[in-house]
């Protein structure tokens, strides 16, 4: 239990975005701060009418907060739920006993199943600071978790949040390992699967390190922040959905861990497997198709790495009762033309509508995955899934089902495109030899994607195409002149991000 609470302070919303980490702001000369011995980076329990959070303290010497106030960051304000000016109590939180397991792992001792469950429980409850989370993530990185520990981590992450039970029968899902800009196949695969009679409640993520996640793209055409009852209504009515997983507590510890994995750039196979499969199990999936793009600038860079990760995913899935198929796909270049939420949505809509100018590579990739999913779900016999998927797309069944899903989720809208645009042209004539996935994605992010949905870039030249000197290779889209200039300044230093071979 926490120590006895101090004298109350008035809650104040500071309107400071600290992402997902709850942060508390107090003046250094605040009587409570002094009497409790709180210091910068102290962990402080903040309570109001039975609600309790643990926040990291930032000590303030300026006058924008008074000694009688407890300032709360946006994350802390949202979690505590107190109104402006409410009296809150502050106290030292009890020690986090599970940190002992993390320290033991740092020194080489394996996690027991019970130990890892304790750690994940405390992580999901918000008891770990970002520094402590970083220690846990680092202790697990570099393949330091064996198969038993990875299975235990996955089970613990499922057990720390909500789960959805869809009843008997197959519940289909798909996931892309990532690292391939524009690979927005989910929004095409789900309506094909649902139109063919499969049940596919798809919970998707927002962007972590990419210019767009599936939830970001889907949100440009329909609402995605649905709660569990709303998700059930949509799936019961249409057979599928495409919603943001962050709006429900499915494997909530994973969302917390991702917060520190991103800046640390640590994403080991064990952590990836636990992250992906815990979300699928919590969402009630029974059969999961995993798209694993492999290429020199993708997340998975070699066939050997793909085989190793594929085996781990299948072993962990088997242990927790999921059926998984992994499909190794081409990860050498971006998919489609758009990179960024609205631009990727435009590509998806073009494929679903059967537009003559729709990106052929996005359509073909989607049909490959949808065909595999139809066979995996028992709807199509071996070798016939792709043809069934193609027929569903060509006859408009997928487009009608997509509109049905959008309307059930709250209504369909056309994506809005940016007004600030600038072409980046080729300095020479020749064939496009390669496109760097990571650097082309960075340009899109510098332009403002995904926070600005209309931002990103539009590719005009695919690998193998001949371009003339001065011809546009891609167009940068931004929501403001400043963001456009920022992205172009970086693009100007990356003359080979779209590599053109040949002589002038």
What does it look like?
It comes from Ramlibacter albus. InterPro entries: Glycosyl_Trfase_fam3, Glycosyl_Trfase_fam3_N_dom, Glycosyl_Trfase_fam3_N_dom_sf, Nuc_phospho_transferase, PYNP-like_C_sf, PYNP_C, Pyrmidine_PPase_CS, Thym_Pase_Put. Keywords: Glycosyltransferase, Transferase. It is an enzyme of class 2 (transferase). One of its GO terms (biological process) is pyrimidine nucleoside metabolic process. The chain is α/β, with parallel strands linked by helices and 504 residues long. The protein has three domains: 9-91, Barwin-like endoglucanases (Beta Barrel), CATH 2.40.40.20; 172-248 and 267-409, Pyrimidine Nucleoside Phosphorylase, Chain A, domain 2 (3-Layer(aba) Sandwich); 420-501, Pyrimidine nucleoside phosphorylase-like, C-terminal domain (Aldehyde Oxidoreductase, domain 3, Alpha-Beta Complex). Helix content is 40%, strand content 19%. The chain contains 18 helices and 18 strands. The chain has helices at 31-36, 74-80, 99-106, 113-124, 130-140, 147-159, 186-195, 214-218, 228-238, 252-264, 269-282, 303-320, 341-353, 360-376, 385-394, 397-409, 437-446, 481-491, and strands spanning 9-13, 23-27, 43-48, 51-60, 69-72, 87-91, 172-176, 200-204, 240-244, 287-294, 323-330, 338-339, 420-425, 430-435, 456-459, 466-467, 472-478, 498-501. It has a six-stranded mixed β-barrel. β3 (43-48) and β4 (51-60) form a beta hairpin. α6 packs across α12. The longest helix has 18 residues, at 303-320. The model has no long low-confidence stretch (mean pLDDT 93).
């Amino acid at each position: 239990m926490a120590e006895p609470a101090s004298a109350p302070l008035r809650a104040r919303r500071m309107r400071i975005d600290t992402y997902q980490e709850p942060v508390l702001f107090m003046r250094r000369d605040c009587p409570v701060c002094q009497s409790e011995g709180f210091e910068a980076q102290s962990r402080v329990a903040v309570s109001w009418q039975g609600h309790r959070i643990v926040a990291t303290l930032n000590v303030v010497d300026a006058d924008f907060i008074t000694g009688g106030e407890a300032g709360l960051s946006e994350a802390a304000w949202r979690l505590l739920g107190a109104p402006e000016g409410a009296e809150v109590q502050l106290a030292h939180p009890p020690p986090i006993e599970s940190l002992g397991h993390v320290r033991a792992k740092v020194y080489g001792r394996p996690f027991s199943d019970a130990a890892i469950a304790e750690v994940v429980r405390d992580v999901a409850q918000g008891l770990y600071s970002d520094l402590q989370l970083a220690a846990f993530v680092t202790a697990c990185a570099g393949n330091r978790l064996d198969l038993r520990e990875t299975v235990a981590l996955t089970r613990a992450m499922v057990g720390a949040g909500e789960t959805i039970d869809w009843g008997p029968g197959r519940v289909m899902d798909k996931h892309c390992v990532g690292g391939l800009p524009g690979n927005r196949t989910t929004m095409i695969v789900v309506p094909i699967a649902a139109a063919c009679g499969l049940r596919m409640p798809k919970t998707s993520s927002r962007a972590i390190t990419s210019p767009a996640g599936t939830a970001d793209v889907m949100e440009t055409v329909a609402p995605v922040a649905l709660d569990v009852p709303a998700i059930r209504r949509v799936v019961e009515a249409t057979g599928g959905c495409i919603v943001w997983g962050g709006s429900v507590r499915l494997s909530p510890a994973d969302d917390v861990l991702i917060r520190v994995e991103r800046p640390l750039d640590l994403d080991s196979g064990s952590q990836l497997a636990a992250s992906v499969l815990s979300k699928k199990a919590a969402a009630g999936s029974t059969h999961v198709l995993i798209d694993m793009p492999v290429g020199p600038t993708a997340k998975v860079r070699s066939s050997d790495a793909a085989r190793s990760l594929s085996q781990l995913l299948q072993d962990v899935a088997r242990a927790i009762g999921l059926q998984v198929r992994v499909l190794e796909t081409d990860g050498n270049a971006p998919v489609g033309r758009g990179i960024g939420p609205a631009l990727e949505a435009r590509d998806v809509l073009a494929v679903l509508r059967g537009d003559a100018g729709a990106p052929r590579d996005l359509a073909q990739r989607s049909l490959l995955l949808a065909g595999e999913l139809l066979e995996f779900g028992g709807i199509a016999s071996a070798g016939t899934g792709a043809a069934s998927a193609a027929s569903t797309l060509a006859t408009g069944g997928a487009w009608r089902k997509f509109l049905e899903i959008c309307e059930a989720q709250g209504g369909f809208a056309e994506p809005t495109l940016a007004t600030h645009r600038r072409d980046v042209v080729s300095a020479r004539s020749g064939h496009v030899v390669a496109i760097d996935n990571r650097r082309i994605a960075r340009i899109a992010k510098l332009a403002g994607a995904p926070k600005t949905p209309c931002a990103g870039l539009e590719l005009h030249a695919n690998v193998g195409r001949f371009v003339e000197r001065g011809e546009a290779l891609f167009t940068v889209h931004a929501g403001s002149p400043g963001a456009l200039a920022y992205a172009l300044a970086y693009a100007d230093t990356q003359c080979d991000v779209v590599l053109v071979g040949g002589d002038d």
